[in-house]
User: What shape does this take?
Amino acid sequence: MPSWEEMRMVGETCSQYEAADDGLERSCGSCEHWVDDEEMCELDIFFDQLTSLDQT
Ligand code: SF4
Assistant: This one.
């Protein structure tokens, strides 16, 4: 399960981010593609995004 910090860092840079609502902090947790029940991105790109963050 990703940490809150990881979800926030990925959300800030992810090109597929779509805000679930106005005025939310940018994070996977506020993205339309996040599946709460599974605690994972439905597009299966979370770990790719996280890995590319580590490389910068
Ligand atoms: S839930 Fe998926 S699409 Fe949304 S910001 Fe996170 S990695 Fe990107």
Summary: The longest strand covers residues 34-35. Strands lie at 34-35, 40-41. Residues 4-13 form the longest helix (10 residues).
